Amino acid sequence: MSDRPEPALLHSEDEEALRAAVRDLLTDHCDPAGVIARSESAAVHDVPLWKTLSEAMGLAGLLVPEALGGQGASHREAAVVLEELGRAVAPVPYLTSAVVATEALLACGTDDLLGDLASATTVAALAVGLHVAPGGAFASVRCEEGTLHGELTGIADASAADVLLVPADDGALYAVRAADATVVPQVSLDATRPVARVTLDGAPGRRLGDAAPAVRRALRAGAGLLASEQLGLADWLLTETVRHLKERRQFNRQLGGFQALKHRLARLWLEVAGLRAAARNAADALATGADTDVAVAVAQAHAAQVAVHAAEEALQLHGGIGMTWEHPVHLYLKRAKADSIAYGTAGSHRTSLAALVDLPAP
Amino acid sequence: MTDAAELRRRTQELLAAFPPSGTDRLDFLRARFDAGLAWVHYPEGLGGLAAPRALQAVVDAELEAAGAPGNDPRRIGIGLGMAAPTILQYGTDEQKRRLLRPLWTGEEVWCQLFSEPGAGSDLAALGTRAVRDGEDWVVSGQKVWTSSAHLARWAILIARTDPDVPKHRGITYFVCDMTDPGVEVRPLRQITGEAEFNEVFLTDVRIPDSRRLGAVGDGWRVAQTTLNNERVAIGGTPVPREGGMIGKVAATWRERPGLRTHDTHQRLLGLWVEAEVARLTGVRLRQQLAAGQPGPEGAGMKLTFARLNQEISGLEVELLGEEGLLYDDWTMRRPELVDFTGRDAGYRYLRSKGNSIEGGTSEVLLNIVAERVLGLPAEPRTDKDVAWKDLAR
């Protein structure tokens, strides 16, 4: 079994500085009450926040080479941004546009769209259902005499997109202007990363390249970096729950002093420590290109369980307040649960691993 | 400042003066100790050169390349990992000079007389008594779970010297000569059939006051040095993917397709992922240590490995089906080395049950994580201000 050189699992000083900058921004401009209010408004995505992240801070172009107008950074930096966006459950199309759509375009070669995405003048969404795992089957539309026809569902952040990257039945990936498509939001479990139905009725498309390798690469990067978002969710949930149990007093004691609760939180901390290593490993593997399939599958086979468990523990240990619409823990539960399906379930990633590490099914 | 180049030069000098091919093993190890190349971060004259600890790897690589004999650290882990740092920190010059050299070369094996039948997780409640008599202490009591006691020349021992003060304050730390009259070692047979450990009965053992480590009544604090070093030693070595218990069951899976079922496949994959995540957590922990930012993950690694070892070996026994009904050998033996991944699946399953008890139970470790890492309130204490002799038992 080939082992790559030891992955770098710590955050560098530059990465910590990036984290601090993103966290400062989110602290000032993405408070939980605002996210809850926005999730029920017409403007689900936080456009001003997205503009600041992408334009002012240049974070939409982290994965795009400098020659194509991007920052020429790596998945390690993008992962740090996603950790922080996860901590805030920020309703911005970062994972879908700056990671997944960007990777699909990179797989198709150089394209002007890449520069537009990097410079944040355009938001793109890959028109593949959010539930599809890397290497999994995905739906396509019909290509008839140069125009596209059909319907695709479960497309994450499509309602924020200016351009849709659409796989067609001729095996190609097409760029379609959102203005030429009908995008109808679906009522989503996670309203902070809503999915939508995309209908094309003779929409013109510009051929970008072969769909299968582009989709595969895009979903692999999405799955690998999703683990960092899940780490952010779990880290916030653990931190907030510990804080709450230190403050909350019942039976004339701090709740956090009861051993039954201490042990649950200690176990959760262990799980989060494991996820931190696995998520960092996936980001590093995507950046170096070594051992990537295994690293991503391991991270995704593990991350959902941790993030969902953190959210479920947080809700239970907050008692009645955790069940209210006002308290933000439900934002995290819904995102964590949706993330457990996004880019393939843990089970589908375990099935991938069976082939990757030679542990075949009976 | 002793740098890598200087250490390489000194190592080559040692190799030139004592060519490994023509030198007796013990002579070479003694010469290495005297050259300060045993543990380079120790002081000069005590096997080291006061060099940065990380530079030990430079010396070890040079010696390994030259085929030099080692001191078989696994056999003398208690001496190296626990007794030595405590002697270094609290010992007198005389004690350091007498004890550290044969400890490092392995000529004198060490054991640890801490746990008692009545003091496991609550170690500070220990009841082995040491009573002052002239220049000696007279020690009586019973210790348990002592590995290597039947091989050891020396023991680190904690005993109660003052029963009239609260339990943490009345303990004193000694070095006990295991060959002295009154020391009786009996094997302690475990559920695996063998006896890795011993019970040690102490009956009026006379320990000279010159073999005390630290002040009278300060033994609990001294013991923290020992126990902290034990925790550093656990989980400190790099592990390759599929190293440890998971590699055994993965190999069985690959070699014997007839055993595979859908249920065991799903469980195997789940545990494989958990083992890989635990391995990566260990890699990250070591990178933190190397960067001078020791993380709290160390406290958690043992918890994870105990649980995984138990679950993985349990799966393996079940996977084996009819063969899982068998056991390799119940004969009472006294293994010198313990290998959690050794022997067959049944042995691994039974032995790993001890992983969540030895070196701190999982329940106590969860308290430690909750209190020291997460800052949650400590357990209510009813024993802090009560004299040891008045404690419930």
What structural class results from the helix and strand content of chain A?
alpha+beta
The total beta strand count of chain B reads: 8
The overall pLDDT average of chain A reads: 96
Radius of gyration of chain A, whole Å: 20 Å
The helix-and-strand class of chain B reads alpha+beta
In N-to-C order, the SSE pattern of chain A is: HHHHHHEEEEEEEEHEEHHHH
Q: In percent, how helical is the residue content of chain A?
A: 40-55%
Give the SSE string of chain B: HHHHHEEEEEEEEHHHHHH
Which overall shape of chain A is indicated by the principal axes computed on the Cα atoms?
globular
Terminus-to-terminus distance of chain A? 21 Å
Fraction of residues in β-strands of chain B: 5-15%
Q: What's the CATH topology label of the largest domain in chain B?
A: Butyryl-CoA Dehydrogenase, subunit A, domain 2
For the record, the count of structural domains of chain A works out to 3
Query: For this structure, what is the CATH class of the largest domain in chain A?
Result: Mainly Alpha
Mean pLDDT of chain B: 93
Strand content of chain A: 5-15%
In the CATH hierarchy, what is the superfamily of the largest domain in chain B?
A: Butyryl-CoA Dehydrogenase, subunit A, domain 2
Could you characterize what this model shows?
The complex is a heterodimer of chains A (362) and B (393). Chain A has helices at residues 13-29, 32-39, 47-56, 75-88, 94-107, 112-118, 211-247, 259-288, 292-317, 329-339, 346-356; strands at 124-126, 142-144, 147-156, 163-167, 172-177, 182-185, 195-204, 206-210, 249-250, 253-254. The two termini of chain A are 21 Å apart. In chain A, a hairpin with a 2-residue loop joins strand 2 (142-144) and strand 3. By secondary structure, chain A is of the alpha+beta class. Chain A folds into 3 domains: 13-122, Acyl-CoA dehydrogenase/oxidase, N-terminal domain (Butyryl-Coa Dehydrogenase, subunit A, domain 1, Orthogonal Bundle), CATH 1.10.540.10; 142-210, Butyryl-CoA Dehydrogenase, subunit A, domain 2; 213-356, Butyryl-CoA Dehydrogenase, subunit A, domain 3 (Up-down Bundle), CATH 1.20.140.10. Chain A has 11 helices and 10 strands. The longest helix of chain A has 37 residues, at 211-247. Chain B folds into 3 domains: 1-70; 73-222 and 382-393, Butyryl-CoA Dehydrogenase, subunit A, domain 2 (Beta Barrel), CATH 2.40.110; 235-358, Butyryl-CoA Dehydrogenase, subunit A, domain 3 (Up-down Bundle), CATH 1.20.140. Chain B has helices spanning 4-17, 25-34, 56-65, 77-90, 93-105, 219-233, 245-255, 262-290, 297-319, 345-352, 362-373; strands spanning 110-113, 129-133, 136-147, 154-160, 171-177, 183-188, 197-208, 212-213. In chain B, the strands form 2 sheets. Chain B has a 4-stranded mixed sheet with strand order 1-4-5-8. A 4-stranded antiparallel sheet of chain B has the order 2-3-7-6, with no helix packed on it. In chain B, helix 8 packs antiparallel against helix 9 (297-319). The N and C termini of chain B lie far apart (54 Å). The relative contact order of chain B is 0.09. The interface between A and B is large, with 43 and 48 residues.
